Amino acid sequence: MSPRDHAMTVDKPTTTGDEVLVDCRDAALIFGRGARAVVAVHGANLRVRSADRLAIVGPSGSGKSSHEPESGA
Fold it and tell me: What is the pTM of this model?
């Protein structure tokens, strides 16, 4: 048998487009601590379903990647 005879097949999952992939409630993003803390986001909600399309857009320096955790935290 050749390697082609052992090819793996992957079935595409059947979805209705209504499955919730991300459900974020009351999110906050705070820079700094104490008296110098700046609240950038407070009380944000986001729900992404499997049929949704999502893009994070904005000019350079606008905070698109601010959700990434700090290294060494």
Answer: 0.54
10 Å CB burial of residue 36 (0-12, 13-18, 19+) is exposed
Look at residue 73 in the predicted model and tell me its pLDDT. 47
Who's near 54: CB < 8 A, 6+ residues apart? 48
Q: Residue 56 in 3-state DSSP?
A: coil
CA distance 35 to 64: 25
Please provide the distance, in angstroms rounded to a whole number, between the alpha carbons at the two ends of the chain: 52
Query: If DSSP codes are grouped into helix, strand and coil, which group holds residue 2?
Result: coil
DSSP E strands: which ranges in the chain? Answer: 20-31, 38-49
Beta carbons of 24 and 45 less than 8 angstroms apart? yes
Lowest mean pLDDT among 2-6, 15-19, 21-25, 33-37: 2-6
